[in-house]
Amino acid sequence: MQRDPHVTAPTPPTPPFRDPHLPFAKRIDDLLARLTLDEKVSFLHQFAPAVERLGVAAFRTGQEALHGVAWMGPATVFPQAVGLGATWNPELVRRVGEAVSKEVRAMRGRDDRVGLNVWSPTVNLLRHPLWGRNEEGYSEDPKLTSAIATAYTRGLRGDHPTYWRTAPVLKHWLAHNNETGRDVTSSSVRPRVLHEYDLRAFRETVEAGAVAGVMPAYNLVNGRPNHVSPYLREQLRAWTDEELLVCSDAGAPSNLVDSEHYFDTHEEATAAALRAGVDSFTDHGTDSSKIVARARGALGQGLLTEAEVDEAVRRQLSVRFRLGEFDPLHDPHAGTGAFDTPAHRALAREAAEQAVVLLRNDGVLPLAADTRIAVVGLLADECKLDWYSGTLMHRSTPLEGLYERFGADRVEFAEGVDRVLLKTSAGTFLRVPAAPEDADGTRGAEGALDPALLAGRTDLPPLTAGTTGTELALVDWGEGVLTLRAPDGRYLSVAEDGFLRASADQPGGWVVQETFRLEPHGNGHLLRHLGTGRPVCVAADGVRVAEEGPEVFDVVVVERGETAVTRVTAEADVVVVVAGNDPHINGRETEDRTTLRLPAHQERILTAARAANPRTVLALVSAYPYAIEPGPLSAVLWTAHGGQAAGSALAGVLAGDVSPAGRLPQTWYAEDADLPDLLDYDVIGARQTYLYFEGRPLYPFGHGLSYASFSYADLAVRTGDGAARVSFTVTNTGDRAADEVAQLYTRAVDPSVTRPRRELLGHRRITLAPGATAALSFEVPLSAFAFWDVARGGPRVEPGPYDLLVGGSSEDIRLRATVVLDGEPAAPRAVRRHGLSAADFDEQSGTEIVDRTKAAGDAVTPVAAGSGELLFRSCDFGARTTGATVTVAGSGTVELSVEGGPTLAALTIGTPTAGPYHYLSVEAPFAVDGVRDLRIGLRGPLRLAHVGFSG
User: Fold this and answer.
1) Of these residues, 141, 183, 198, 249, which one is catalytic?
2) Which residue among 195, 307, 802, 945 sits deepest, i.e. has the most Cβ atoms within 10 Å of its Cβ?
3) Longest dimension (CA), the chain
4) Banded model confidence at residue 455, pLDDT cuts 50, 70, 90
């Protein structure tokens, strides 16, 4: 039968998932029902394939955008996250997030590898300044961190009520502050620290409503990997009605078996992670086959159900719908991206200016316009990038900024590095061949090096040895880590073929190939390449790294860095020493720092500058705090690596065009001895961060000076309707317009448990003209005065007096008032009714929290010495308690005593249990009555989960 050519075929109905008038939930239900099980399983990998029969495009989770679009080529580069934290300016950070999201959209329009699911910001708290990734966080304080993170996510999300410009994912869940053994170490986090500190920054940001999901961290918390954390369901998903997407960190799903040995098979691990709440598996790069095979295996073995797969896919689809993927005609963000605009360039400079913190000033700053300046230091003519930076389209170094602001004729420069020749045992010298200048090569129109063409090249000629050598800049970054640079700025680097070439514009990469170490050997030194671990050899076909035939070099010093510094500083009016770190060396992802000290070479340069000219200003450009001796210095400034406008911003502050108003987002300690162990996550017990630190910091949290002065007055406090309302005035008493950051803190005056010495309740960055006054007010919910009461398993506001402290930093308090809150009185622990969870202790020594089972719960175990103590205060044993029962695994003895008295019960497991998760109940007589403090001693390799009482 022939079809009538004049009859139009009916248009197939639009499937409900394509109908923009339906709620997202109904559309997701429809699409989910149309997908086959195999298709849904394929969505579990980071790179979800297209489903062509439904017209569903491929999708990838993950686009790095910490302070600009990263890894996708040229983009606007804003200050590092810790620098954005130093602005104490959420509104500025919101605008930065908005600019970044617009660049993501613009770059997505021309490159579909750019993802709209952005993995930022990092809200891990900067608990310990030696953490290698300090640059990625905002602050050591949860309140400030959540304020800045919320602002950034709002900018990334956009303000359309339905469709998101990008979908931000918070990193890294949870209690993650060490790179040393980061995939195998466990953070022991007791309930108070968990709820008052580590969860808080995540919670307040999620509850603000602009977060699409989170990424679990590599580490374990209380003995359990974060990728199977019950907190994902018990905490995270309870904070919001939104479908939050949980994306694994790269390679972490495999770590569950391969490095952590937490599960025996990858099928078990995949099923456990999915059940815990991981929705997207970032593993094996773009190859999804292994994750898909593991998920299918888990389904086949009954470890996983299709309903659990559906739950994960539903959350992925929720993000995709919110990003407008299925409504291209209704997406308000389609085609509206903006890239490298004048507004973005101006914003990058504004952010860099606001991030500068003036730590000390004896009056030398700001500099007069006719000042003769000597600029010295390793960072003086650098604009450093970090692992999560985009490629610079514009750059400004401190030296360039000062040239521009003061004129090149008034600025002298000396880098201050040692310049050396490397002499071989044969009497020849290492020589760097000249860089080619062909059209596609390594030099731009003005002869400058082209970084994009230099990095990783293997077509350049390798180094050779000859009768004349090339003078190299030897830069010592501390701990014996060196870089070597040719006179034209190219760094010596080792490519995959093992040859040594001058082929990098900067040190960088996941494995840095531009770092070396000089090791004493005989009458000279071996030059060991740190990226490969191999020594440098001189061969007939060029200089390379190899295990055999290492060359023994004599380091011939042509000029010491101190000599160059002295030469340019003696006649200057002021010396500006620019010191700090390279973000790829000695403190970065995968590598923690070992000391707060400046590298010895930079200390020598600083000493030489001060000796030549006492009017010396130290400008620290770094990703983290340092312990320095500020005494002889006229001024000290700090800024994080400030992105493309760093140099112009710093020059503007030095010249007084901008009055500095950055504030420290974390404590600067005076010495390494002030720091706890890197792996001690108990901020309360170890007295960490400004909240609990009892020593004298080098510079306190919130510190920062100005070129103006400010007075505070008229403090008033009212309480009622569940809030405290605090108001005061700030007046600019100086002679120039400037920003001030007014800070509001509290402290419990007479707490029954250890509480913070200061705790930030709120802050405001304001701009005031000379003589102007601003009236500020804060409404603080009374819940902000609560602590986590382990006896009741929840927050409690303790009755009593609370100080409200107003000023310019956590230690610069100008106004003080005290309020008395009714709160909720303490109640003894009802141990006869509920017993005691071992992890709910008040104090401990020599113990750590571990996992009770692989799925949920906590237990406590002694650490290395095999002996630990727990203290539980105010336990109500009633009129008569006659027995105790402990739930334990392993072997050893649990000792019970009260009020510091003798052991009243010793409960022993003689034969070890079958494994750490095989618990026994052991009973013993325990005669006690009334309300007492209970002490529990743990002896031997056991895990205590619970203690019950009877009578």
Assistant:
1) 249
2) 802
3) 102
4) low
